[in-house]
């Protein structure tokens, strides 16, 4: 059951319409929908404690009006107190009445809880609750959310969307006070609340005002994009309102209050009427502000256009979005079917979004607008076309531009088509459905423990096999319970049959949940980040969530598991990973990555370099837990959230910004630096596609897989990523094998042997690590790490690649000793350190460490980067 409340305190407004559009998605999925219109919230609407009468006729029949009971019995709570509190907050900047506010908020909270219990509420939608107009209700709702969510273990069951906020609606009037709005109830950072902003600018402002809030998404006002047409249901609209069939019609849907500047429309009609048979239809409640209504009608009469201006009263909301109203009256869509233009000449700082513009675009009707404050952010900067008024009243230039659009049918059609196409992309209904599906509408199973994140880009050839391997995961002698995990497939702009194959698989395998999400920024890192965020947020909303206000943990740990579509997963991959994570309590579980030797039967030199690398990796991973690779690893959801998720790093390459591809490794470093432990799970095996080596073989040999000359952007080595789907399959020459191994081992040692102890020098005191290094080397490393850290004045190695310089320095200073230990542990064929860079060969031994520091810090030339440059492709 969904219960919502609008802080607008009117039977029909933009807030109410947006509630209905969102609630419709819940209704279509079987939710019963209840709405409180908020009459007992805002003092300035004059409806405090006024009973509902015929308001329901304006709303769809599937909405029930359910206000909070018995508010009139709360001692001292009335419109006069609400006004007094607001005046204190805004005018005086203090809250002398705080004890009274808290007392009444507690009483209101009890009544909110009683209503929710009686309705058995499972979802709550608050529209515009973070305003100082009635902070008692805001506080009461916040208290009720915490108590009710904990009592019923509901997870993130509240969607809290602010349309106006202090910086979006009439900021110039100062009606909400001044930044930083100290007496406005701060946003509640709770496991039970998901905040929604209308656009990215609003999201950024909200984050700046409330940096403690982590869970906030953008949900723009969305619309079903279908052209409005004249039909049997609305054919009589013009006749019923005395508008000639031949007249050009401008539509204005609005509240009739001064801030909406309807006077501009009347002036515009007066100017247009000199050359054009034009009418203006104003849809809105003429009784809301009687003084403004009389002023406008007098203005129309004075300008000689009273017979051209129709105040049509209430129109029902767009029935395409919310369904037909119970009363069966004309709707906004009926008006748009007859309109030639839609007007939105609002005041500069009043509107934050502009629903009439969105409705016009969706109905394929051109619009005109004032240049209100948020217009560029919401519409203008996206390329929508419309005459824009930048003055107080219509200028001759603006009037001529409107007249041309109004009278040129070809221009009208082209403009409407252009805007409709853009609107479908930016404000189509699918964007709301996708977001709400992700957050609340498709709940995660209560027994689900893992989300497998699978980034895909044109993987039609590989996808069926990897999906089948995921479906047939095993646990002991039988199939792994499919209720324990789900698949999150992240499509990264595939142009082949990838998505169609995924949808077909989901339809054919309904017992395993598969979700398809999309990431438009190209790059496997971006796709993996999106998939992990999707799964992390969904898991926070599981019905099994606890009442801990600081976390969204569940009774059982939840894991985000990374996989890759061109790799092959062992049947025991997931079950062994799950068991190891549960048993160890680790933050990250690292899989065993391997190649099959038979794929390299005719390439012994290449296999020799690969197998030596894998043997070294096995030893290091067993000692230190290793670092994650996107081909297969698990991270506990809370550890993921603490680290801020996957971070994307950008560098310039050939004059353009490109994203870095070692997100998995760097993410592991962030988790480790925040205290998260790692566990190596050798039984959780991932077979690497040998085509990766083939596709990047020349870069492996030359040491350019991580770029060159200081550019550390890793080439995407996934076959076909650069448009080249072919790879030369060959063995290495003796010289190439020597170089490939040198680059591989130079990459391996700093990252796998030195970085773990650099992040946690205490490891050097543990017995397995001391046994591997030997006590003298372990002690020397610990002392040198302390000296380097002190010298560099660097304590935090979590920023991407901040670890490189100290790791490289330790490599050069201890290379001989490190290779000696590798030979003793892994095998004599590991050999000795590759030759030093030429510039270090002649340095006096007593100054070697000094010049190593210069070399490793020389980021302008990238010499050290090139020296270590293979990037561990093996």
From TrEMBL:
Keyword Transferase applies: yes
Keywords, sorted A to Z: Transferase
Any one GO molecular-function label of the UniProt entry: glycosyltransferase activity
Residues covered by the Glycosyltransferase 2-like domain: 451-621
Domain of life: Bacteria
Keyword Transferase annotated: yes
InterPro entries for this protein: Glyco_trans_1 (IPR001296), Glyco_trans_2-like (IPR001173), Glycosyltransf_2 (IPR050834), Nucleotide-diphossugar_trans (IPR029044)
PANTHER family: GLYCOSYLTRANSFERASE, GLYCOSYLTRANSFERASE 2-LIKE DOMAIN-CONTAINING PROTEIN
Protein name: Glycosyltransferase
Record organism: Streptomyces luteolifulvus
